[in-house]
Amino acid sequence: MTATATEAGSTTTPLKGIRRTAARRMVAAWEAPVFHLNVEVDMTRALAVKERQPGATVTDELLKACATALAAHPALNAHYGEESVTTFEQVNLGLAVATDAGLMVPVIHDAGSKDLAELADARRDVTGRAREGKLAMADVTGGTFTVSNLGMMGIDRFDAILNVPQVAILAVGSTRQRQVWNDGDPVWRPVAELTLTCDHRAIDGATGAGFLSSLRTSLEQG
């Protein structure tokens, strides 16, 4: 990317390649009629992921839970286009990654067929190459659902913009200790807020809620 001086005190940097494509898609995403759904999840089990799979992270656990929930709710594993919705049998998970060159969304293809260890390996591979600027176009295309996790950056809750033509995206906030009711015996639990952005042309509220319910169950109970 080449920066050019345009006037005193300012620099203009033209967008190229993947970043230019992403910018165009954001405009299309902003035009989609969306709604948001939010759930709180007890992350006790997810935070213990390294006990089940050394080297795996909470993000890997989230990816695994999303792949499982998408298999049960294929309406969210879909693209919208030309007044039609296309659903996919294969789950290809996009993962938003902050890099020095800006936001990248590499794709873990066929995530639904991978166990936790394989997902962790695939996540390390694509995020590492994203930060090194070594992604190819095949690495950022074909996604059917995207996860954006800003929890490790201290963001409690946020609404993510659709990664069109995908019909849904999950935003993951930070995990905080909160007191929960626990059948009348309040206890402190690590809780995270997950927010689902849905394209209302393809998904209704009940469908989105069903996905989030399955996702929460998978994260809390496995």
Your description of this structure?
Keywords: Acyltransferase, Pyruvate, Transferase. This is Pyruvate dehydrogenase E2 component (Dihydrolipoamide acetyltransferase). GO terms for molecular function: dihydrolipoyllysine-residue acetyltransferase activity. Pfam families: 2-oxoacid_dh. Its EC number is 2.3.1.12. With 222 residues, this protein is an alpha+beta fold. It is built from six helices and twelve strands. The strands form four sheets. Strands 3-12-11-10-6-9 form a six-stranded mixed beta sheet. A hairpin with a 2-residue loop joins strand 4 (78-81) and strand 5. Helix 4 (58-72) packs across helix 5 (116-131) and helix 4 (58-72) packs across helix 6 (205-221). The mean pLDDT is 93.
Strand order of the largest sheet: 3-12-11-10-6-9
Structural class: alpha+beta
Q: Classify the beta-strand content into a percent band.
A: 25-35%
Write down the overall mean pLDDT: 93
Could you give the distance between the termini? 44 Å
* Poorly predicted residue ranges: none
Helix content: 25-40%
Gyration radius, in Å: 18 Å
Task: Using the alpha-carbon principal axes, give the shape.
Answer: globular
| Main beta-sheet strand count, sense and barrel state | 6 strands, mixed
Topology order in helix (H) and strand (E) letters: EEHEHHHEEEEEEHEEEH
Number of helical segments?
6
How many β-strands, per DSSP? 12
List keywords for this structure.
single chain; 222 residues; alpha+beta; 6-stranded mixed β-sheet; two-stranded antiparallel ribbon; 6 helices; 12 strands; 32% helix; transferase; CAT-like_dom_sf; dihydrolipoyllysine-residue acetyltransferase activity; acyltransferase
